[in-house]
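Data availability (excerpt). The following record was deposited with the supplementary files.
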Amino acid sequence: MTTNSRTLRNPGSLELFLLFCILHVVRGTHESQWLDPLDSDQCKREEKERSDLDLTVYDHTFTFIADGVFLGFEQDLERFLKHNACAGRNDNQSVILEGRKATRFFTDYYGIDMSLVSDDDLLNGKVELADGKLLFYPFILNPEVKYRILSETSPCGSRHYEDALISDIGWAVEVLEPIKLNGAGYSGDAAAGNVINIGETMALAGPKCQSKNKIRIHYEAERPLRVVDGRFLIGKFRVHSDKHGDGLSYGFYDTDPETGKIAGREVLTFTRRK
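Predicted structure:
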């Protein structure tokens, strides 16, 4: 085997720099396989050192994506209770108490009469409301949706995640027939196919729910989740995190009515707190 001596030379500084960058990116992607939230205390320290700069609008953001199959919200009591246990609600009574918060939200914010909903219904029931125009039920999102965290940002940087699957549970009111809602928070029409939901998303830092790094975010539909042109899901939610405070979430998803394939994302923004 022979080589052309004119094409061989010692690598220069540019080549070494590029090689370092490539290795750094590969290593960084591998290390972010499990969710490891950005260190907020470190961010605050770094912010003090550059307090003369205003580089961001929000204190914290997350980007969620879904690119699997969505065939509607599901009821699975075993997985529903498992999520609640992972969130610290270890018995049925504590789950029911959380469910009662949801029914109060539906009543106060949307003006929906929830008096027909029993404690058992909060765990695994279906109840028709408003003379059959609405349907209430607890739900959990199927893992086949592939709902997960894509990225996180804070004033000190951003991070990309792999395999940070999101468990999403809650309580929903589905609109079966067009109806006029009149609540303290929302007053207006709701079309057939709209869904109003309140619940909780949770992503884990590892395979065990005891992880101190799990991210848990409460959400409430600020307006009904709309279906546009029979396939586009558009949602706006008020969100709350014990760590990051109050914020908003905007989501847009394209779904195939025949196959259930879904593709889209939502962005959660937490405003800067004084």
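Summary of structural features: The radius of gyration is 23 Å.
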